[in-house]
Amino acid sequence: MNPAETPIAIGADHAGVALKDSLRAALKAAGHPVRDFGTHGDGSVDYPDFAHQVAQAVAKGEAAFGVLVCGTGIGMSIAANRHPDIRAVVLHSTTEARLTRAHNNANVACFGARTTGPEVVLDSLSAFLTTPYEGGRHARRVAKINPTPAGQEA
């Protein structure tokens, strides 16, 4: 994982807090600045609250990437993807991490604490953060994800 100036935003619900904490520690150990949006305990919380905070930080350019963790990663990805300019993906492998960055310019990685082992998550996050977006033929497809509404300029 290559350290960057812009922080990585991270968040989790109660099901993902332990994995989030270990990811935060790994990111910091690799030299990444991290902005932790919580949660910080195992008491029941609502995952969309954390997904929205992380997604907003990424969309505003306050964070280079986002990392979200819940039981499956699915709820977090659904909530984060409600934000324009966010391409949140649930990852289960390094191959998915590399391809979604290279082809889709994904900017939020979501993980399931109950579905994916911590070693796979760490490897996938490393691949996600170090794989560049290829652009080229993929750029027109990514541009179609959030088309400009009729009557408005891009």
UniProtKB/TrEMBL annotation:
Active site: residue positions: C70 (proton acceptor), H103 (proton donor)
GO biological processes: carbohydrate metabolic process
Class of the enzyme per the UniProt entry, highest EC level: isomerase
Keyword vocabulary terms for this entry: Isomerase
Enzyme Commission numbers on file: 5.3.1.6
GO molecular-function terms, A-Z: ribose-5-phosphate isomerase activity
Residues involved in D-ribulose 5-phosphate binding: D13, H14, G71, T72, G73, I74, G75, N104, R114, R137, R141
Coiled coil feature spans: none
Family from the record: Belongs to the LacAB/RpiB family.
UniProt-recorded name of the protein: Ribose 5-phosphate isomerase B
